[in-house]
Please model this.
Amino acid sequence: MTHARGERSALCDLFDTLGPDAPTLCTGWSTYDLAAHLVLRERRIDANPGIALKPLAGYTASVQDGLKAKYPFPELVGLVRRPGGVYGLLPPLDEAVNTLEYFVHHEDVRRAQPSWEPRELPDDLERLLWRRLDMGAKLMLRRSPVGVILHRLGGGVAIGGAKDGVKVEVTGKASELLLFCFGRQEHARVDLTGDPDAVARLTHAPLGF
Model:
């Protein structure tokens, strides 16, 4: 099983356990909302642009609400379990595109629940997450008001954020650094070193794609 399929399956198992009304780290979204988002992303290409473009967000939100109205939560989760659209036809594309998507959203659900603890991930998944982060750090940190130096435990450095001014060093496992750079700063298990004001500004910055 690929990592994308593994994270997808584990997230759907968690959906089944928690039900439709559990919180997530996606602001304002329950597990029902997140499941609808994932179905929309793969099966309603017409509504995808509004995920990133605010002028089109209203249409995307209406499609997402329509999916919730059409499908009971267990049926929606069933659709998430099976890669849809091009991802169902091209497994290598599913792995290339969806590993990060499903890892982050799996953690969005896990870490919104009480008494969560970080998972011990396979070494090859940690290495994959670091490669993706190393390639995408500048884009993910483009809105950071301060410079950022990412230190991966076990080796590896990536740089992003503001080019001038103070720098903040962020140290942790690749998986935790990825969550930090995806905008889940308050729920990522990392160590931050630098000027306290700069650290505070980075912690509350709108990071991610």
